[in-house]
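User: Here's a chain of 737 residues. Predict its fold as tokens.
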Amino acid sequence: MGHTGAGKTALVDRLLATAGPPERQNGDHQLAHTSYVGHADPDHRPSRSVSLSLCSVSHRGLTVNLLDTPGYPDFVGELRAGLRAADAALFVVSAVDGVDGATGLLWSECAEVGMPRAIAITHLDQARADFTAAVEECQRAFGTGVLPAWLPSRAAGGGVRMTGLLSGRIVEYGPGGRRESAAESDRSDVRHAAARAALVEGIIAESEDETLLDRYLAGADPDPDLLLADLEKAVAHGTFFPVLPIGLLTERRADHDRGERDGNQRDGNQRDRNGRDRNERVAEDRGPALAGGFGSTELLDLFVQGFPAPAEHPLPVLTRPDGTACDPATGDPAGPLVAEVVKTTTDPYVGRMSVVRVFSGTLHPDDHVHVSGHGRAAAGHADHDDDERVGALSRPYGSVLHSVPDCPAGGICVVTKLATAETGDTLSNLDDPRHLPAWTMPEPLLPIAIRARGRADEDRLATALSRLAVEDPTLRVVQDPETAQLVLWSMGEAHAESVLERLAQRYGATVDRVPTVIPLRETLRAPARGLGRQVKQSGGHGQYAVCQIEVEPLPPGSGFEFVDEVVGGAIPRSFIPSVEKGVRAQMAQGVRAGHPLTDLRVRLVDGKSHSVDSSDMAFQIAGGLALRDAVRSGGVVVLEPVLAVDVSVPDEFVGTVVSDLSTRRGRVVGMDPVPPPPGSASSFAATRTVVHAEVPESEMSRYAIELRSLSHGTGSFHRQPHGYEPMPPQLADSLLG
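Assistant: Prediction complete.
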């Protein structure tokens, strides 16, 4: 995980080339982009990942499942799915771009649940990239537990030398590939010695072997094998975070190198805080990316040696599908089956494909399982319990799916042809059904109204949207009954464009975006009287109905009241409900701008009838005419929907957010400080403030995008209906003409 453009997908490709099957790498070292769940995905763009990708590799006899998550904030739902399935997280940080606010929030989110983490520094081949400076920035952002495990430097012949601070090994990457040197690292080097001492102390501080600390304090040099054994414990505690330099596969042209040298000359004799020349430090810390890159083998070693085993991954509290308690499950392959669908997609040839993480037990092809989905009804996914048969199981290697005989606890596999299972559903044994609680998914807050371009598109649209809603839990499809618009609620502009592109390319449903209609209301400005006459005599049975009403506005939110005050039998009792029905029908249609009327009290005070020509329909028409007459006399007030908005931002952005809400005709009604999580050392976990405001809905249609810009990606908000309030006269006049 990490910010967009940090090189996450390129890193996965590099790891596949290092540990995967030979067909992933050809003689020119050209790698194909990682494809989602191992098959060609039309949604994957080389310039930006938009969905979660799973790739499995084998290293030193162990299987490593790599979940490549999108870095763009619009696709945070895919990232949350990856977090649910993962045992540990690798943060990919660009040495050029540094750490952004969104990455800092993700780090804090992992810290709250104690997820083990490590950091890979990429883009070290870029101009003026500095590994030491990148590590220092990560330490300021994430805390003092961030410590490098390898140090890069230039090697003879233009290669890259990596020095292991724990093992003391030296590995050189050059034109001939990777070569492990027999020479030991120079521990007399001040920089190397200081970095190694910090790393050793960090591991020992997390070690459960107290004698190791005593020997170290006595001056004994710890055994590297003992340190490597304790590395996994230190990482598993979630407070120690090793850092590795990674060189990705890039093409460097001579003019690029020449421009980089010119840039270094323009920098002059800039000095860092230690007094060293900056150009000298760049040359020391940074190595060019060669054919094959560097650091991928060392990173795979860290996965195997330093990351905790799946059995150490704590499981959420399990329940039965009906909500009753059940025994907890452990990561035992022989235990009861507990698995979860973390991603769903549809292949035009294979059909529905589900990425499944097995937490307990073992999943086999053709197993009969219970599928349980609960807790997502608010997002449009109804609760359901079904029994299904599992299809084939596969492990993806890049663009190829390889069949596997089973998937034990801790594994992730691709399951085909689960007809009813959706993202977030739990798979368990038929005779022992269990349910994992639904994980927290972000709320889609950007509405996009669409309309089918043609009749053929309209026929395909319903099926396409239902499938996309199953695949993407952050997409909500709403058919607004009041405006008759089809609205897609998305995470942002990029997410919306991705959905529209999938509709057109995968399902052949082309749509047009149309302005989103805000449902307005009307009410009476002042009390008024109205007279309705429906007198029609044109041969045959006539129509005769006269009614007189008095109308007055009610406080906001009161709705509608109808009061019968007719005396003396002026209107027969059987026709009183007809008048009310006609008034209600006219209120639903509106009077001036065509918006429904609300917050009215209508009193029926008088009327006339005819023994032959009066009828139910005549009094319905007269009731509607009487309301129209009263509204013409009393005037109309246009009401607009208002939202109760809670905006959460770091304290430094509170003033900016409050000012922006004021420009949106919003009223700030309160603020509440939110302290950082206990024990969090991240600078991005600084105190936050929730700003409570009431804002017209028409001003909030693109707030999801604008808040991200205002808060540098660190803000979030929640909205809910608050009621209706009068629209400013100048805006209302434009609607009323």
